[in-house]
Every structure is written in structure tokens, then in C-alpha cells.
């Protein structure tokens, strides 16, 4: 039974699981917990002599720390070997004798196994033990249990945390298994980010290796937690003793924990409840304290963790629903797209249609044109002077419309040239002008602005040739060509634009790029609606272009070296690449952009850009990260090159624009 309704959220975080102890009566375990309101169980798969409890908690430095409590004898079910361990089978018979290490697959239906059970691998295993027998036993058991899980088509398995600080052999075995997995995701319980990091590096960042976080009562700093949102966290295990008690005696969570759970929901991370009930309730059943009135008979049937589940459901349901725009963009989250090439290619009708829905963008342009018109022509001259305004790159006409509305709003007279090089968009422009009766005001020019011979000079040049990284759709090169027909004191809207960049952890995007198995894709910048990522340091400005630019030595080549410092309490991080944005000053105080700290609200024309790194860069806590980026210009193309030089050096990406470039 999902946690409830939350408008727009159809992600896995609607489902809540519960960690169960060993019990060979799987149908009973499942029915109790599913009838008790949980969607799935995290249950031990194998028969194991030893049972260990693993607790994780966050230490002062913000890392996760594992505490192992005592080893406890588990009363094995009657029909199996109580002391079963693989090494007890003598070597000669090992290959031929198969002792039962798990119950039958027939006890549940295939769909029950795959939809409702996450396997929990025996927690005693220690694949890096100094004890040869324990190590070998551990390896056999791990492989046996994972093979069984795969046979059952479970969606995931929860592996125990590595025991010590070294996890080389454990990672080697998991990596071997991952190479052969096709239908299951291995979820790794971690003690600290460092340990997790070395584990996944040893497993070559395998895309089916995920992580389950333990949430205990003390939490590390926000920056330290933030790192995990760029990692493949699949589940968060919330222990019952993490809950505090509300005024009515029900379990609830601290404000910080509530916020953390909201973020887990937002990032589609599933909650798993674990532990024994620690709240003694005398009546009622609502964790949120609402007026439910179950009687005692019902109480007796209730799942022992029901009040905790109700509380998690309550938090889920009280989450702010996603705004309409976000819901519309769900399908674009973390989906890599090649940037448009509006200069080299002709945009399609559908693309124009999407642009034109973004009313916020045109409102900003209208405000900018209004201010420029008022500055250019005084009220006294308004009825006698006509302003020549050229929309360069007019598309299907929305900036023409915004400019005419600005003229009407300010009482200024306008003569408009609409210059567009896409002949298909020009067709629509003609019908728009006719439809709106603008024939006496608007002249359509079907030409590339760089070679148009204008019959007169413009007072105002309006353009929107901006990409997610500002200059990446070649606005500088196009406007260099158009400035020939701007009066010396003329105004360009936009008057400048600046790109911004910041390092990010995003294992999802890194793995998606890696899937292509070639250099080209690691040397390409992508447009992407960033979602599962950790922004590691505030963004910094990269390249600025100002218009008009009449400087005789002007060049559109650029180079920038940036030094990023991660906040002290973040801990070590991994950088998979750089997220890029832009901000444009249209006119004076009117701007538009997507840089997160100043982004124009509710504008959706641009997603950020992502510059990947061929190999993720590990940045130790306190170390700076040095990044270089070049904007290079040739006769037929413009491209970026980028690299990291500290703490380690990466290769220079996209040398000579060999993989990714924008055609002139
Ligand atoms: C990003 S679209 C913007 C279209 C429109 N202004 C809008 O806001 O919907 C850029 C437009 O500029 C046109 N364009 C790009 N470079 C151009 C050039 N050198 N000369 C003329 N048009 C150009 C493209 O064909 C495209 O229609």
C-alpha cells in the first residue's frame, strides 16, 4: 500500500519497506508485513549460523560510521543444518553435494518475489578477513545468496557493510558478480562516504551498484549529507530508535529528519523501516496524531511498526506537490540531450512551439524593450519619432510581438525588421504578420544576419540566440555580424551574457555517458534537466560577452582558470563533471538566466549544460579543485576544451574540437 497521494509523484519513494529478521516462513513474513501496510520486506535470504546487527550512524566529521554489535546465535529452523557454513562440506564433496542454504522458491509466486522482497545478504560475511576460512566461506556464501536472489528475480539485494577499512576482496567479488547480473540491482550498505567511494571505484562505478543509507538519530552537516544526492542511493533505512515522541506519545521525527525524508522522497529514494517498536501506544493509531478511532481489537492486529509507517506516510503526503512545470519536466530529469545547433541546423516547428510557451522569457524581453524605448525617446518626441528595431533571429515571431507590445505600452512608434535565416520559420512569420495586420510596421527579411545588407541602421537590436551556457549557440559570432547595422549609439538587447559553472557529483549522468563506451561522448557537453546531483561548490562566472562591442581587437576566444573550494564540512567528494548555466542582462536591471542563485522564476526555455569528465576526480576534504576551460574559434566551428589540473590532472577534453563543436 503506497504511502499515499502526492500530486505528480509517481516515483519509487511512494513505497515503504520494512527490514525483517530471519524467518523460514516467508509467506507468513510477507503477508504480515504487506497486510500491515508495507510494500516490501528486506529479508535475509540464506540460512546462517551467525547474525550480526549493523548500525550506522554519522560521526562528527560527517562520515557514516558503522558500529557492529555483538554476534548472536540464531536459532536455525529445524529442517536445516543449524551450523551450516560452506566450509563444513569437505572439499571432495563440495562440488557434488548441495546442502539446502535457502528455502524453496515455490513458497512465493514469482511476482511476489520480484515485487515484494529485497534480499538481505548474511551479515557475518567478511571477505577481507585475515582468517582464510572465514574469507573463503564468506565468498561462497555471498555468491550463493546473490545467485539465489538472481534466480528469484529480486529487484535488489542489501549487502552488509565492509567490516574494516579495507574492502578490496569484497569489492572484487561484488564486481565479478555485477559483471554477470542482468536483472538485479545490488544495494550496498555503507559506513562512510570514503569507504563507499573506494568500493565503487574498485567496482569501476558499476551502474548496478547502489547504496542504502542508514538514518540514525544524529545527523551530519547539511553539506555532508548533500553529497549523497549525487550518489546512487536507492534506499534509506530508518531505525525505530531514530524516532522521537510527540506530545501524544506517537513516534515522530525531528525537523532535520523530516526535511531529510522529504529530500529522500524528492529524489525517489525508498524508505525502509527497521528495528523493534520503541513507542508504547495506549490507543488510537495515527502517528500524525489525527483523530483516528481504531478499537483495541484492531490494535491487536496492527503491524507492530504501523504507527511508524503511518508517520512516514503522513510526511510523504504533506510534501508540497510538484509545481505544474516540474511535473511536465519529469520525463526530462537527468536525460542527456545534445545542445541545439540553431545556426547550422534549422529548428523544427515543435521546438519553436516549446520556446513560445515560455511566457516569462517574453515578459522579460518586453520589459527590457519598454525601458530601452523610454530611454531612447523622450515623452515629448514619442509621437514624432519612429524607432527602428530589428529582431535578429526572429523565429516565428514572439520577440516581434513582445517588441510591438512594449511600443504600445510606452506609446512609442516602431518600425520593425524581422530577420530570420530559417526559411520554414519565415513562412510562419509571413502568415503571422498578415493575421495580425502588422504589414505597415513589420518587414520580414529572409536572410542570415551576418550577410544581410540592411537598408538603414537600427536603434535597437533584439536577439535571443542564447544557449544554456550563454554563448554556446554562437550568439557572439552572429551579433558580431549584426552590429554592422546598429547605430553607433544603438542598444543591443541583450547587452551582455555570462556563463557560470560548478563542480557536481552525478553518478547517474556519468554512467549514462559511460554507456556509450567511447571517447566522443565523454567530450561532449549535454543539455540536461539536472536532478540527482550534488552541487559541490557555488558556481563561478566563466565567459562574458558584451554587445555592442566595437573594440578593434575583439575576439570571441576565451580562457578561464577557476579554483573551487568545497565547504569545510562537506568531507571528501567525487566530481563527475561540471554543471553550466548563464545569466543575460537584457537591458539595465532586466535580466534572465538559469544560474541557480539568480534564476528567473518559472522560466523553462533552458536546462543547464553538463560538461562530463572522462574519469571522475576524487577531491579530498579541504583540497581545492582547479578547472580550466577554453572557448576556441576556427573558420567553420566553435568549441570548448576543458580539464582539471588539481588535485589530479585529467586529460584535456575535446582537443581541437575533435568530439563536440558548434558549426558556424
Ligand atoms: C533560439 S531561436 C529564438 C527564436 C525566437 N526569437 C523565439 O524567441 O522564439 C533563434 C533563432 O535565430 C535564428 N538564427 C540563428 N542564427 C541566425 C543568423 N545568423 N541569422 C538569422 N537568424 C538566425 C534561428 O534560426 C532561430 O530561429
Key structural traits:
664 residues; alpha/beta; TIM Barrel; Rossmann fold; Hnrnp arginine n-methyltransferase1; eight-stranded parallel β-barrel; seven-stranded antiparallel beta sheet; elongated; binds S-adenosylmethionine; transferase; Protein arginine N-methyltransferase; Arg_MeTrfase; S-adenosyl-L-methionine; protein-arginine N-methyltransferase activity
**Could you tell me the number of beta strands?**
28
Strand content is: 25-35%
Identify the CATH architecture of the largest domain: Alpha-Beta Barrel
Level-1 CATH class name of the largest domain: Alpha Beta
Average predicted confidence as pLDDT: 87
* Biggest pleated sheet: 8 strands, parallel, barrel
Rg, please? Answer: 31 Å
Q: CATH homologous superfamily of the largest domain?
A: Divalent-metal-dependent TIM barrel enzymes
The end-to-end span amounts to 56 Å
Helix content: 25-40%
How many helices does DSSP assign? Answer: 18
Strand order of the largest sheet: 1-2-5-6-7-8-9-12
Net shape:
elongated
- Total of domains: 3
Ligand kinds: S-adenosylmethionine
State the CATH topology of the largest domain. TIM Barrel
Low-confidence stretches: 48-83, 88-98, 289-293
Structural class: alpha/beta
InterPro entries: Arg_MeTrfase (IPR025799), Arg_MeTrfase_PRMT5 (IPR007857), PRMT5 (IPR035075), PRMT5_C (IPR035248), PRMT5_TIM (IPR035247), SAM-dependent_MTases_sf (IPR029063)
Domain PRMT5 arginine-N-methyltransferase: 324-493
Domain PRMT5 oligomerisation: 496-662
Keywords: Methyltransferase, S-adenosyl-L-methionine, Transferase
Amino acid at each position: 500500500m503506497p504511502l499515499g497521494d502526492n500530486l505528480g509523484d509517481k516515483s519509487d519513494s511512494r513505497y515503504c519497506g520494512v527490514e525483517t529478521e530471519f524467518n523460514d516462513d516467508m509467506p507468513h513474513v510477507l503477508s504480515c508485513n504487506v497486510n500491515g501496510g508495507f510494500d516490501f520486506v528486506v529479508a535475509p535470504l540464506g540460512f546462517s549460523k551467525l547474525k550480526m546487527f549493523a548500525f550506522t550512524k554519522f560521526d562528527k566529521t560527517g562520515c557514516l560510521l558503522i558500529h557492529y554489535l555483538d554476534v548472536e546465535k540464531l536459532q536455525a529452523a529445524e529442517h536445516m543444518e543449524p551450523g551450516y557454513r560452506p566450509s563444513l562440506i569437505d572439499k571432495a564433496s563440495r562440488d557434488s553435494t548441495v546442502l539446502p542454504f535457502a528455502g524453496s522458491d515455490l513458497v512465493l509466486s514469482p511476482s511476489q518475489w520480484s515485487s515484494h522482497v529485497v534480499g538481505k545478504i548474511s551479515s557475518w560475511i567478511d571477505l577481507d578477513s585475515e582468517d582464510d576460512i572465514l574469507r573463503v566461506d564468506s565468498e561462497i556464501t555471498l555468491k550463493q545468496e546473490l545467485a539465489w536472489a538472481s534466480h528469484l528475480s529480486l529487484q535488489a539485494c542489501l549487502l552488509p557493510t565492509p567490516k574494516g577499512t579495507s574492502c578490496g576482496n569484497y569489492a572484487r567479488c561484488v564486481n565479478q558478480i555485477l559483471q554477470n547480473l542482468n536483472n538485479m540491482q545490488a544495494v550496498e550498505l555503507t559506513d562512510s562516504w570514503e569507504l563507499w567511494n573506494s568500493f565503487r571505484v574498485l567496482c569501476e562505478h558499476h551502474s548496478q551498484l547502489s547504496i542504502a543509507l542508514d538514518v540514525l538519530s544524529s545527523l551530519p552537516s547539511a553539506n555532508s549529507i548533500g553529497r549523497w544526492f549525487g550518489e546512487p542511493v536507492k534506499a534509506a533505512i530508518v531505525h525505530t530508535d531514530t524516532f522521537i515522541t510527540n506530545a501524544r506519545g506517537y513516534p515522530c521525527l525531528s525537523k532535520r529528519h523530516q526535511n531529510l525524508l522529504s529530500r529522500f522522497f524528492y529524489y525517489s529514494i525508498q524508505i525502509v523501516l527497521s528495528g523493534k517498536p520503541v513507542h508504547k501506544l495506549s490507543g488510537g493509531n495515527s502517528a500524525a496524531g489525527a483523530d483516528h478511532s481504531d478499537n483495541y481489537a484492531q490494535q491487536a492486529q496492527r503491524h507492530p511498526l504501523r504507527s511508524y509507517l503511518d508517520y512516514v506516510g503522513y510526511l510523504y503526503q504533506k510534501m508540497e506537490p510538484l509545481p505544474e512545470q516540474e511535473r511536465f519536466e519529469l520525463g526530462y530529469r537527468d536525460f542527456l540531450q545534445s545542445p541545439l545547433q540553431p545556426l547550422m541546423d534549422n529548428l523544427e516547428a515543435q521546438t519553436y512551439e516549446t520556446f513560445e510557451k515560455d511566457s516569462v522569457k517574453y515578459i522579460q524581453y518586453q520589459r527590457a524593450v519598454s525601458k530601452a524605448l523610454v530611454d531612447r525617446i523622450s515623452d515629448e518626441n514619442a509621437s514624432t519619432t519612429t524607432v527602428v528595431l530589428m529582431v535578429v533571429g526572429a523565429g516565428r515571431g514572439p520577440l516581434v510581438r513582445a517588441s510591438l507590445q512594449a511600443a504600445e505600452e510606452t506609446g512609442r512608434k516602431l518600425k520593425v525588421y524581422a530577420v530570420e535565416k530559417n526559411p520554414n520559420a519565415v513562412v510562419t512569420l509571413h502568415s503571422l504578420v498578415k493575421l495580425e495586420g502588422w504589414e505597415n510596421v513589420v518587414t520580414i527579411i529572409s536572410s542570415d544576419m551576418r550577410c544581410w545588407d540592411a537598408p538603414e541602421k537600427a536603434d535597437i537590436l533584439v536577439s535571443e540566440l542564447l544557449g544554456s551556457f550563454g554563448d554556446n549557440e554562437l550568439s557572439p559570432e552572429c551579433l558580431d555580424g549584426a552590429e554592422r547595422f546598429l547605430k553607433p549609439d544603438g542598444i543591443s538587447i541583450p547587452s551582455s551574457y555570462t556563463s557560470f559553472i560548478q563542480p557536481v557529483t552525478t553518478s547517474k549522468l556519468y554512467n549514462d555517458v559511460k554507456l556509450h563506451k567511447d571517447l566522443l561522448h565523454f567530450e561532449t557537453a549535454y543539455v540536461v534537466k539536472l536532478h540527482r546531483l550534488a552541487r559541490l561548490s557555488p558556481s563561478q562566472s566563466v565567459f562574458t560577452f558584451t554587445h555592442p562591442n566595437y573594440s578593434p581587437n575583439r575576439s570571441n576566444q576565451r580562457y578561464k582558470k577557476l579554483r573551487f573550494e568545497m565547504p569545510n564540512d562537506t568531507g571528501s567528494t567525487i566530481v563527475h563533471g561540471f554543471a553550466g548555466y548563464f545569466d543575460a542582462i537584457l537591458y539595465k536591471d532586466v535580466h534572465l538566466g538559469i544560474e541557480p542563485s539568480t534564476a528567473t522564476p518559472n522560466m523553462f526555455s533552458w536546462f543547464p549544460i553538463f560538461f562530463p569528465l572522462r574519469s571522475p576526480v576524487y577531491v579530498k576534504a579541504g583540497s581545492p579543485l582547479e578547472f580550466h576551460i577554453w572557448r576556441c574559434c576556427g573558420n567553420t566551428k566553435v568549441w570548448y576544451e576543458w580539464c582539471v589540473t588539481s588535485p589530479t590532472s585529467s586529460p584535456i577534453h575535446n582537443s581541437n574540437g575533435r568530439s563536440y563543436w558548434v558549426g558556424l
